[in-house]
Amino acid sequence: MSEESPATLLVVDDNPTNLAVVCAHLAKSGYRMLTAENARSALRRLDRVEPDLMLLDVMMPDMDGFELAHEIRKREDYHGQPIIFMTALDDMDSKLSGFAAGGVDYITKPIQHEELMVRVKTHLEVSQLREALRQENAKKDELISQLDAYDMTVAHDLKNPIGGIASAVETFEMIEDLTGDEAREIVEMIKLGANHAQNIINGLLSFARFRKGVVELSTVDMQALVKQSLESLATLIEEYDAEVRIEGEIPPAYGYAPWLSEVWTNLISNAIKYGGRPPVVIINAKSTDDKISYTVHDNGNGLPDDHEELFKPFSRGQSAYIEGTGLGLTIVERIIRRLSGSILADNDPEGGATLTFYLPKPENAD
């Protein structure tokens, strides 16, 4: 049940009159009503529709309400929905049997409809709160899992550059008469290790930054952002002797320019690093009625078989396509999702990897 849609209630009673009266009162509050006149019919209903709350008569032929509740609770998808029993039985043993069968409440007949309305409303609210808590706990469990991966990943990834720096310093201390070339080589080793460690730390900071934060969205000149990214990657392009082609116009999108600059820089640098030798990177875009797709294609060996893992934090898959801590594409995916878009990664049948992200079209765009 969402905040926009009404709750769906299933009422099971072998007395058609009771069934009609209960449903009529509940329907006045806007609930969507489902009915069944026996347990077997109710179970068939549950094969097709998942109600948010169930009201079960107890005294029914063939299978009573307690037995029906036991059958419902056996089903994997029906462990949490509230079950309220309706019956003339008001002795303690019957009530205990109802709770043991998985019921959350017990209403005795004749039913006071004001009481029924209050109990239904209360149990729906409790159920919603319980589901929200379950989802929140699931998010926390996922975060804990990510942090566990973070511990191992950062320790592993920082070990190499820091070890390189320590080794260079040790060499510097051991050699008494360093030539100028030897000193410059050691300094370069230290710089490379420091830059590598800094890149890992920057990636982790970006990962944390894009998990939260409020930004003001506007129309973004994507053509200009691509050019800026290429300028910032000029050294990398020269180092790899890469060819980067922009095919056609890159239309504007609705988003946040600083974040989208990070997206372009990350995707283009990945395409260069993991493209062919020399790399050829093709950038293009396509406009639809309400969205624009932006594609970065490389001429490399393609993505690993488990490339659906690319956007998960600290995951590298079977390939070096994710570098460092494995946060680059995770950051990209989180940015795009925060901007109400989506991103897909796939292999081109003709070779190379293709990463395509979709963003909303500006309102005033043609």
Low-pLDDT segments: 316-325
What would you say the CATH architecture of the largest domain is? Answer: 2-Layer Sandwich
Mean pLDDT: 83
Q: Supply the number of structural domains.
A: 3
What is the CATH superfamily of the largest domain? Histidine kinase-like ATPase, C-terminal domain
* Strand percent estimate: 15-25%
What structural category do the secondary elements indicate? alpha/beta
What separation lies between the terminal Cα atoms? 37 Å
CATH class division of the largest domain: Alpha Beta
Write structural notes for this entry:
- The protein is an alpha/beta fold and 366 residues long.
- The chain has three domains: 8-111, Response regulator (Rossmann fold); 145-209, Helix Hairpins; 218-360, 2-Layer Sandwich (Heat Shock Protein 90), CATH 3.30.565.10.
- It contains ten helices and twelve strands.
- It has helices at residues 16-28, 39-48, 65-74, 92-100, 113-174, 180-209, 222-232, 234-240, 257-273, 328-338, and strands spanning 8-12, 32-36, 53-57, 83-87, 105-108, 218-220, 243-246, 253-255, 280-287, 291-297, 342-347, 353-360.
- It has a five-stranded parallel beta sheet, sandwiched between helices. A five-stranded mixed beta sheet has the order 7-9-10-12-11, covered by helices on one side. A two-stranded antiparallel sheet has the order 6-8.
- A hairpin with a 5-residue loop joins strand 11 (342-347) and strand 12.
